[in-house]
Amino acid sequence: MMGLCTPAPTFPPGTDLTGKSILITGAASGLGYQSAASLLSHDLPPAVIFLTARTLAKATTAISSLPTPTQFTNPTKVVPLALDLTSFASIAALPASLAAHLSPSGALDILLLNAGIMAVPPGLTADGYEIQFGTNHMGHALLTKLLLPVLQRAPAPRIVVLSSAGHKAWPQGWGLKPDSMKTDAGDLSAYERYFRSKLANVLFAREMARRHPGVLTVSVHPGLVVTGIVGSETPWVMTAAIKVLGPLVMKSVEDGVRNQLWACVSDKVVSGEYYEPVGVAGKASKDGKDDGLAAELWEWTERELAAHGY
């Protein structure tokens, strides 16, 4: 629940975020909210955090319950921004709102692509993409493209994409089934649709790192975390098991946030890699390491965004 998160996981020694700007998607609750709370309580916190949620009201409410450290002379500024990843129009409106609050350099240092949905009923985004693929991949791909100029103004920009070990459950050899990306993909189960979107996150980060080597880009898995993200299409048996066994086998958000924060700040991070908690590389699926599949996804995504005028 918001307001009950403990302050901060341990950051790597010597981590200094002074003067940095960080944008977090899906930060009204769960891992995104805890990321903001942990960054605020860090000994050397950033200058500004842009906290995004589907509506400005949700973002503002989340900020009101964040911890307010009093030990800093210049505390971090937290700015609410509206961002609905199911709508290209909403995404396209964000850069102008962001620009009004950036430092004189106009730079964004860290983009934490944390938002996501899981195991929801079949559906489409406002722009006609399968709802999980459209939200988890297409929305973040457009946001990244639009924010690339301000990221490139930073001295050492980073993008951290929240994926999942679930990407390994997408059957090898299926490719990405592009023919169903612009349908509700009703022939796939809710979890298969989710696994595809998480594989897309891994591949997008890998190809982003290759095409834009000046921006350190990685994907991460947080572990099994109690966040409330379990979707409505989750079988009742699994839902019941999570309720009973979750506290025993799943991480709290305070612990689950460690890997993405590590990826935001550590000097051990290798661009293009996929990391499991905490900082463990080399665990991506065979498809997740497929450069040809990564390029195919990138090119398909670029064609789609161009068709929408982006």
Query: Strand fraction band?
Result: 5-15%
Task: Output the CATH homologous superfamily.
Answer: NAD(P)-binding Rossmann-like Domain
- Helix run count: 9
**Could you give the count of β-strands?**
7
Query: What name does CATH use for the topology?
Result: Rossmann fold
The appropriate CATH architecture is 3-Layer(aba) Sandwich
Largest sheet: 7 strands, parallel
- pLDDT under 50 segments (min length 5)? 1-8
* Global shape: globular
Helix content: 25-40%
Q: What is the C-level CATH assignment?
A: Alpha Beta
* Mean pLDDT metric: 90
**Biggest sheet strand line-up:** 3-2-1-4-5-6-7
State the end-to-end distance: 37 Å
Tell me the count of domains: 1
Structural class, judged by helices and strands? alpha/beta
Cα-atom radius of gyration: 18 Å
> What is the string of helix and strand elements?
EHEHEHEHEHEHHHEH
Family: Belongs to the short-chain dehydrogenases/reductases (SDR) family.
InterPro entries: NAD(P)-bd_dom_sf, SDR_fam
Protein name: Oxidoreductase
GO molecular function, one term: oxidoreductase activity
